[in-house]
Amino acid sequence: MNFIRPEARAALWRWRELLGALALLALGLRWALGGVGFIQMTGWACVALAVILGVVGAQRMRFRLGSGGPGVVQVTEGQISYFGPLTGGAVARSEIETLRLDHTARPSHWVLEQPGQPPLAIPVTATGAEALFDVFASLPGLKTERMLSELHHKGPHQVVIWQRSPEPRSLHRLH
User: Fold this and answer.
1) DSSP 8-class letter at 166
2) Do residues 124 and 158 both lie within one domain?
3) Does the predicted model carry a pTM greater than 0.85?
4) Given Cys at both, which of 23, 38, 109, 170 links 121, Cβ 3.0 to 4.6 Å?
5) What is the pLDDT, as a whole number, of residue 65?
6) Cβ distance 81 to 71 under 8 Å?
7) Which domain holds residue 31?
8) Is residue 154 included in any domain, yes or no?
9) Which spans are transmembrane here (predicted)?
10) What does 87-131 look like in DSSP terms, one character per residue?
11) What whole-number distance in Å separates Cα of residue 107 and Cα of residue 130?
């Protein structure tokens, strides 16, 4: 039996990381302020962990713009796959050269470019698109806060979120 309305369940699920961090914070504060010795130290460690989880949870929550958009995203061992109604494809995380956000499309799309392949456009509201947060956050040098702020900008524009820096050319001596 379902005791929670689907809308309430969806709202709770969206806030899940922050609610978990809040519960850990409450437990940590109780142990830190009411315990002694090892329990007190564990409480303060829980408080610190709760703050970190809260920050990460807030970022993840801002990344989720909803679901039910066209297509399905799967991330498996560094491989991003998108199965859409009209297009689709796959990109290896290690092969991504450029990550763009295209606000001219409806809904907005993440555009992943890799050498020798056509760009892969993934709607931000595609089912499973929240898994892209971890992939994007692991790109070297990507500024997560900038990505999140660009995600919430309005107006028809495209913006490069991340671009792989060119590999330094090795110097080959002829003699």
Assistant:
1) P
2) yes
3) no
4) 109
5) 75
6) no
7) 6-63
8) yes
9) 42-58
10) -EEEEEGGG--EEEEETTSSS-EEEEE-TTS--EEEETTEETGGG
11) 15
